[in-house]
Structure formats: C-alpha cells, structure tokens
Design brief:
D-amino Acid Aminotransferase, Chain A, domain 1, eight-stranded antiparallel beta sheet, about 650 residues, Dna Ligase, domain 1, about 25% helix, Rossmann fold, single chain, 17 helices, eight-stranded antiparallel beta barrel
C-alpha cells in the first residue's frame, strides 16, 4: 500500500479523496493555484505545493508541475479526481516514466475510451448497442450537416474529448447544426484543448443511465449497479439517483453485462463509468465511457456500502478485486443534488464572489442519511476560473420516497450568503409530482420549468411560512419582554404582508412547549429546535420543517420548497398603514445590454451604429468554462459599445447601449 498520495485536483473531489486516504492512514499532498492558496483542500492535506497562477491551463493542467510536486514531496502515487488531467493518457504515461503510480486506468484504456469517437468503435466491436451516427471527427460544419441529414433530426453535436456537458449542442435543423458546430468546437478547445467533434442521433425523450464498473490488473471486472442522471440542464447533470426507477432486473443485468464486456475488451483496471441513453421503453444505447471517478459516485457508495476511492487505490497498488459480481446488491435508495453557484432567476448564470455565510444540512431521521461533499467553507471565494459547484448533497433512505423526502428537508436547510445558488430550485424540483413519480427524461427541466425556476407560492405554503414567521415574532416579543428595558407583550393578532401582495392574518399565544399560531381558524403548535445561520428548523404540529429564515430591521426572508418570499410581520393596524408608504422604483436600463454573469468577453458581434434585429447575437461571454451567447431582446440601432474582446466583466456591467 502507498504511504503518500498526491491529489491532482481541487475543490470537493480533492477533499473527498483525502478523506479516504486519511482513513487508510495514507499521507496526502495537495496542489494549488494562487486562487486556491487558502482553499479547504490545501488545509486538509498533510503537505501542499503551489503549481501556478489561477487559470487551469497554467496550473492544474500542467503535467510538469504535478511531476515536480511529486518529486518535491516524495509522493508515490497520484489520484486525479475528475476533470483536469483525469482523462488525458499523457498524464499516467508521464507518471509511469517518473516511477509514480497513477490511481486510475492504464493509458491505453484512457486513450481508447476517453475519446468518444474511438470508444464508440470499441463498443461496437465488443457487441455493445450504440447510437446511430458518424464514427469520425468532422472538419467542417458542412460535413456535420451531411451526417445529420443522413441520420435524421434532431442530432447531438459532441466534443470527442468532452465531458460535464461542455462542447455539446442539440440541433433540430441544418442551421442549428452549423451554428452548434462552431460553438461546440470553440467550447471543446477552450475546455479540453481538443476541438474535435462528431455528430450522432439524438434520442427523443431520452433517459440517461450509467453503469459503474470496476476492474483490476488481473483481468477481473464487475459492474456496481446503475445510476440514473436524467435530470439535466444544458446537458449538465443536476440530480442523480441510484438505482434507476426505469430498469427491471432483466434490463439491469443486460446493461451491466455489456458494460463489463466493454471494460474487459480494453483491459480496464480502475473505477469507470459506461454511460447509456435509454428510451422510455428501456431500449438502451452506448453513449461513452468516462475513464475516471464520476461526480455522482456517492449515490453508488451509499446503496452498496463500497468506498470507490479505496477500491481505486487498492487496484492501483496491484491488489485483485475484493468483490465478486454476486456480492453486489442494492440496499435502499440514494439521491444526489448538485449545489451550484449560479442564479436561477437569471437563467442559471454563474455567480461568483466570497461566501460570507454557509450552513449545510444535518441528518434528518434515524432511517435516513445525509452526506455533504464540499470543498468550500465560510470565507471561500467562488472564482470564474473553475467549475461553480459548491457541494454535493446526497441522501439515502430505505425507499426512493424516503430518500427524496430527506433531500427536500436537507435542501431547505442550505443557507448561503455572498453568492446566489440553485438550492431553492433543487428544493422545488424535489416536490415536483413528475419527479416523485419517476417519470423522467433529460428534457425534464426544460419541459416542466419553461419560464424558469421561480415558482409562485401556493396558499398552503404561504400559510406555513406565515405560521413560522408569527411564531418567531412571538418569541422575539417574549425575549424583549423578559430581558429588554421596555417590556413588550406577546402580540395577540398579527398580519404578514408578503412581497407577492398577499396578506395573511392570525393570532399567536405563548405556551410552555411552543407557540400556538391560529390562521383562518386552524391552530398549529410551533416548536423550534434552532434558528440561526439563516435556517429555521423545528416542528409544526409534530411534522419536521426546515426553512430558510433571515431577518432585517424591516422584514423577514423565507424560503421553503423552492418558494422564496419576503414578509413584513406587523400588528394589523400597522399593516393597514403600510399601504400608504411610498415605494421605490428601479432605475430604467431598458436601452442597455448588461452582462448577466461575471466572465470574459470572447467576441463582440456588433459595433457602434449597427442596426440589430431581435434575437441577433451581440456578444459571447465565457464563464465557468461555458460560452454564453448574449442576444438582442429587441430591434434597434447600437448607440455605443463599452467593452472589447478579452475584457473581464462583472455582473451587470454595461456591454452596449441602444439609441
């Protein structure tokens, strides 16, 4: 076994690998860029080595810098995590030449399966069902159109070296193929240093299901069940679960057999994932093989009890697999939600900045488990240089319903200040009937949230929010009465003025075991467990409730099940007078095009004096490794352009102005 392992990554995956190393008594080495000098993974490691400035190409993607760090610290092996160098065959080859073990598959397997074009050829040769489409890299948009015309629309344009939804575009017509081809190539080159793309048939109403495989250096290979990752946005996974609600035991066995056959065909000797696309009848087709640890591996760990990082380390050390196929069986259900630094109210655009406050969920019940994998703490900086993931929240329960219920509570306990995040959207998604029924597809988010993730509060949820707000007002009044210099009696009647122009009235009364709140003739007993760090946790008539809760001198902010409201809690007479208070109006920015996220100006498509049509591309902004096209929302003449290509912009920076 190794005595010291260098983790060639950052963020939550670096911390996750180090946790296993520490449990096994293995020393750890972190590498970091200047942007990550004080990051948690650096603090967690036994040793740390600086490898360059913030851009990944000048730090985490430098093989020479990793080799120098190994030589400096005496690390015997390197775990790459996911992303960065994890799927570059040149990396393990360079490590082997330096006498250092790569904790991952052999270079030949990475080269064969890490390349989507070559992996499809290998899959066909191994008898694996594959998606129709071109088998080679395309040089021009015209070549892509020819392939698309031949197999029929819609099609998927995919980067050969891609992953994580980057370098991928869906096209429904010739024009969309031409535009998507250029965008996919540009994104692929920026993210992976490889601009090759290919085209294949896009399965309508598809489901994304993947098989976890594990092989050793002695010719053994098994599969460790499946994960379903159908809840996606822009081809980026958002929610994952294990097992899949779609598969029957027969389909699971067939899919697993094909995945193992492919792994054996390329002498695969580590943890990896064979990804399939399936239709609603469970007909499945090979998509690609990821020759690394997946972001969503925790759901597999929770239903099997295995530590996949430990298995990778043992395999890399030359040990044979410790488990046979018959040993692998699912235990309960697990769900994972990816918490991203992005603004759901601005079409999920990235949000960067410093995390001023951070509260993560705790276990909710004896029969469920809550696991949080993160690489940030209070004070951490979310920068534009890296992936915007804050944390992975994973829940496990005896049934799918129990795991989802635990996730709903866990997401409502997330409290983050300083940046925007998608927690409220994830919470709303957990409550969606179609999700709870398991009626999934990769188009779920686009179909069910066509107008974005902001959801109106139902009467039931608004009443529950008012109940908690009234109870907290009563507790605060008691506190002032007991400890304050000006005694304030507990208010009998209260009104909540919500920001959606709804008014809710009720009465409150203090009891020894809580606060009684009566609204519309219904009385509820509210008992608080804790209220701090932006989270209210307690019971309402015995039912466990977690809710986002933040006070200001004028109102209180509440979040629950994806609904986010502000309320002014007042005595009824004061609430009546509130209607006479003047309201501030926002500044008029109708003629200005503002940058919706912090990022880099890749290109400008218009100049001063140009006439612009509605929907015409104005600029391309790169943020978090993704290119975002800014389009005109109306026709008009450009009065002035205030930025140039290569400029770094803050959120709401003015790009241009119309006359």
């Amino acid at each position: 076994m190794f005595e010291k392992i260098l983790v060639a990554n950052r963020g939550e995956i670096a911390c996750r690998v180090m946790r296993t190393c520490k449990r096994l008594g293995i020393g750890t080495v972190a590498v970091y860029s200047d942007a990550d000098r004080h990051a948690p993974h650096v603090e967690m490691a036994d040793e740390a080595v600086r490898i360059g400035p913030p851009p990944a190409a000048e730090s985490y993607l430098r093989i020479d810098a990793i080799l120098e760090a190994c030589a400096e610290t005496g690390a015997q092996a390197v775990h790459p995590g996911y992303g960065f160098l994890s799927e570059r065959a040149a990396f393990p080859a360079a490590l082997a030449e330096a006498g250092i073990t790569f904790i991952g598959p052999n270079p030949a397997a990475i080269e064969a399966m890490g390349d989507k074009i070559e992996s499809k050829r290998r899959a066909e040769a191994a008898g694996v069902s594959t998606v129709p489409g071109g088998a080679g890299a395309l040089e021009t948009a015209e070549d892509a159109v020819k392939i698309a015309d031949g197999i029929g629309y819609p099609v998927m344009i995919k980067a050969s070296a891609g992953g994580g939804g980057k370098g991928m575009r869906i096209a429904h017509s010739r024009d969309e193929v031409a535009d998507g081809f250029d965008r996919a190539r540009s994104e692929a080159k920026s993210s992976f240093g490889d601009e090759r793309v290919f085209v294949e048939k896009f399965i309508v109403d598809p489901r994304h299901i993947e098989i976890q495989v594990l092989g050793d250096k002695h010719g053994n290979a098994i599969h460790i069940l499946e994960r379903e990752c159908s809840i996606q946005r822009r081809n980026q996974k958002v929610i994952e679960e294990a097992p899949s609600p779609l598969l029957t035991p027969e389909v699971r066995a067939k899919m697993g057999e094909q995945a193992v056959a492919l792994a054996k065909a390329v002498a695969y000797d580590s943890a990896g994932t064979v990804e399939f696309v399936a239709d609603q009848n469970a007909n499945f087709y090979f998509l690609e093989m990821n020759t690394r640890l997946q972001v969503e591996h925790p759901v597999t760990e929770l239903i099997t009890g295995l530590d996949l990082v430990e298995e990778m380390i043992r395999v890399a050390a030359g040990e044979p697999l410790r488990h046979r196929q018959d040993d692998i069986a699912p235990n309960g259900w697990a769900v994972e939600a990816r918490l991203y630094a992005e603004d759901p109210d601005r079409k999920f655009l990235p949000s960067i900045g410093r995390i001023r406050r951070l509260a993560m969920p705790q276990d909710t019940a004896a029969e469920t488990t809550v696991r949080v994998d993160t690489g940030v703490v209070e004070g951490s900086e979310i920068s534009r240089f890296y992936d915007p993931m804050i944390a992975k929240i994973v829940t496990h329960g005896p049934t799918r319903e129990a795991a989802i219920d635990a996730m709903s509570i866990a997401l409502d306990e997330v409290a983050i200040d300083g940046i925007r995040h998608n927690g409220t959207f994830l919470s709303a998604l957990m409550a969606h009937p179609r999700w709870r029924e398991g009626n999934l597809s990769t188009g779920f988010i686009a179909e069910e949230f066509p107008d974005g993730p902001t959801l109106p509060a139902t009467d039931e949820i608004r009443t529950l929010m008012a109940t908690v707000a009234f109870a907290e007002e009563a507790r605060e009044a008691l506190r002032r009465s007991t400890f304050g210099s000006h005694p304030t009696p507990v208010p009998g009647a209260l009104a909540a003025l919500f920001d959606d122009d709804t008014r809710v009235e009720g009465t409150v009364a203090a009891r020894a075991d809580g606060v009684e709140v009566t609204i519309e003739g219904t009385t509820r007993l509210v008992c608080r467990e804790r209220c701090g760090l932006g989270v209210w946790r307690g019971t309402v008539d015995g039912a466990l409730i977690s809710m986002g809760y933040g006070e200001t001198p004028h109102d209180v902010g509440l979040t629950y099940r994806g609904r986010r409201l502000r309320a002014k809690v007042r005595r009824p007479r004061i609430a009546d007078l509130q209607a006479y208070m003047p309201q501030l109006s926002a500044a008029d920015t109708a003629k200005k095009v503002l940058c919706p996220m912090p990022g880099l100006v890749v290109s400008l498509n218009v100049a001063k004096g140009d006439m612009v049509d509605d929907g015409q591309p104005l600029a391309v902004i790169e943020a978090m490794k993704m290119e975002n096209v800014i389009r005109a929302e109306r026709s008009g003449k450009v009065k002035d352009v205030y930025v140039e290509a290569g400029a770094s912009l803050a959120v709401d920076a003015v790009i241009l102005e119309f006359e």
